[in-house]
Design goal:
about 80 residues, 4 helices, mainly alpha
């Protein structure tokens, strides 16, 4: 029997946590129109997808931030949050 669109989508989403090198997580955020347009321009200029550009930007910022941290601050930075937001 053929699967419905909803069933195919559910199966696709169920596989995502195991995809790639370390799984994937869905981000859903609203940004200003100016931000969305700037992201599109930057990604196009770099000849990459918006996803690839955003991932690189975030990971670069994380590396720069953690490079200057003391061991104690580094441990706090990677500690699990008490309340998820």
């Amino acid at each position: 029997m053929a699967t419905t669109s909803a069933e195919r989508q559910r199966a696709y989403r169920a596989k995502r946590p195991c995809a790639g090198e370390n799984g994937e997580r869905r981000l859903q955020v609203w940004v200003s129109t100016a931000t969305a347009l700037a992201l599109a321009r930057l990604a196009r200029h770099a000849s990459v997808t918006r996803r690839a550009f955003l991932e690189k930007l975030i990971l670069d910022a994380d590396r720069i931030t953690t490079r200057a941290m003391s061991d104690e601050v580094f441990d706090q930075y990677f500690a699990l949050p008490r309340n998820k937001r």
